[in-house]
Amino acid sequence: MAFAIPLFLAFMGAEWWYARKSGKRYFNFRNSVSNINVGIAERLLDTFTTGMFFFVYQYLYHHFALFHFKPSVLQWIALLLCTDFVWYWYHRLAHEMNIFWAAHVVHHQSEDFNYTVSARITVFQALIRTGFWSILPVLGFTPGMITSMLLVHGLYPFFIHTRAIGKLGFLEYILVTPSHHRVHHASDEEYLDKNYGDVFIIWDKVFGTFVEETHAPTYGLTKPLNSHSFLWQHFHFYLELLQGVRQTQGLTRKLKLVFGKPDLLDPAIRPRLEERYLLRNDMVQATRRLHDYVVIQLVVMLTGLFTFLLLEHYVPVVVQVLIALFIFITLINCGAILEQRRWVFYLEYARATLLFIAAWYFFPYAVLLWVPALALPMALYYDARLKERYLRLVYGRV
Which positions, given as ranges, span the membrane (predicted)? Predict the structure, then answer.
């Protein structure tokens, strides 16, 4: 899967080039960075969870399988149809139940619609989908077949997240096309909660959730998030749901809220949570320095992720954990910089600490202990001056 990264980046670059040459504003810098950041986190965590998912399928197949299908052309076709059918219902319930929407909402936060949006998948969604797809080994499909199919099935949706492709003739009646999926990502009332299919559009037509694209959609949430914070994007709806449950009386009503539609949640909850947790800094305008620093970090993360995935079987577990933590702190750093937070300076201490631990792991020499012994007191003594210069360097002015 390591080589999927440059492949997807190439398509994103081609779409950006096409949009720029044709004068179409398909891309927003901050939105695109936020989209890719979410994808980096998901791809990184997948390296630690994929094995667990396979074990779940294997356990269910050996202990609960109703049948035992052997790989054949017909079985592969049947698996494709079953996988897509299960996806439809997972996707539909992810929009209709708050407990699932809390994970899926991240995918719909972007107000752009381009290939970078396809990266907005979280590991929470992967966990929920595994629960739905666990029916496949019980039906009798082997874990190897399921894993292979999910890889192929997971590639197709990338190509339907684009405005650069119009309607595709007769394929519109069979497959989920970019036109169909643009409707799904729309916040227009007539488009809401439609076109849930992943590969085949037939399920939407059978179950009455199909709508044709008749006008250019408005993308994003019905109530825009207006935040590029990596952490807030992932957890804001969980906090909203928790607060909603707390202020709801009675167990039955609490359960109805958790398993009911997002419309049931009090819309006044989010502004209160934003006031408490999402301190904004609108005084500092974005600068070229800020953009450059974010791009540099993005390039470093993508390069590191590619190398990590390529060599993961040769990298010690300790180093894997250190790399993962470094990338996650960098993701939080990028989101905080886009939000122009002042506390972003202290994340540099965290990254420096991880680099030192990695150096100590490979070179466990006592002389290295002098580095933090000297650096820490100096950093504390010059903290205010270092912070001011760092913020000036990144934001241009403080």
Answer: 45-61, 73-90, 132-159, 290-311, 317-336, 367-384
Question: Could you tell me if residue 217 is inside a domain?
Answer: no
CA distance 158 to 178: 10
Which residue, 217, 247, 277, sits at the end of a domain? Answer: 277
Sign of CA dihedral 25, 31, 32, 33: positive
Task: Output the furthest CA–CA distance in the chain (Å, rounded).
Answer: 70
Establish how many alpha carbons lie within 13 A of residue 246's alpha carbon, considering only the half-sphere containing its beta carbon.
Answer: 7
Instruction: Give the pair of three-digit tokens for residue 24.
Output: 């179409």
Domain range for 361 is: 288-395
**Tokens at residue 320, please?**
């894997």
- Count Cα neighbours of 254 within 13 Å in the Cβ-side half-sphere: 9
* DSSP symbol at 65: -
Specify the 3-state DSSP secondary structure of 265: coil
Q: Burial, 240: exposed, middle or buried (Cβ in 10 Å; 0-12, 13-18, 19+)?
A: buried
The residue length of the chain stands at: 398
What whole-number distance in Å separates Cα of residue 40 and Cα of residue 61? 31
Tell me, yes or no, whether 136 lies in a domain: yes
Q: Judge contact between 46 and 52, C-beta under 8 A.
A: no
Indicate if 94 and 113 belong to the same structural domain: yes
Q: Quote the CA–CA distance of 222 and 231 in Å, as a whole number.
A: 20
Run means of pLDDT, 10 residues per run, the chain, 398 residues? 89 96 93 95 87 92 92 94 97 97 96 96 90 96 94 93 96 97 97 96 97 96 91 95 96 96 94 83 64 91 91 88 94 89 90 93 87 88 87 75
Give the C-alpha separation, 243 to 279, whole Å: 19
Which has the closest alpha carbon to 47: 2, 106, 100, 98?
A: 2
How many structural domains are present in the chain?
A: 3
* Nearest alpha carbon to residue 193 among 104, 125, 119: 104
Residue with tokens 């356990």: 59
User: In terms of domains, do 251 and 329 share one?
Assistant: no
- Give the side-chain half-sphere CA count within 13 A for 289: 12
- The CA distance from 121 to 149, in Å, is 18
Amino acid at position 210, single letter:
F
Q: Spell out the residues 6+ positions from residue 59 whose beta carbon is closer than 8 angstroms to its own.
A: none
Whether 97 and 52 map to the same domain: the answer is yes
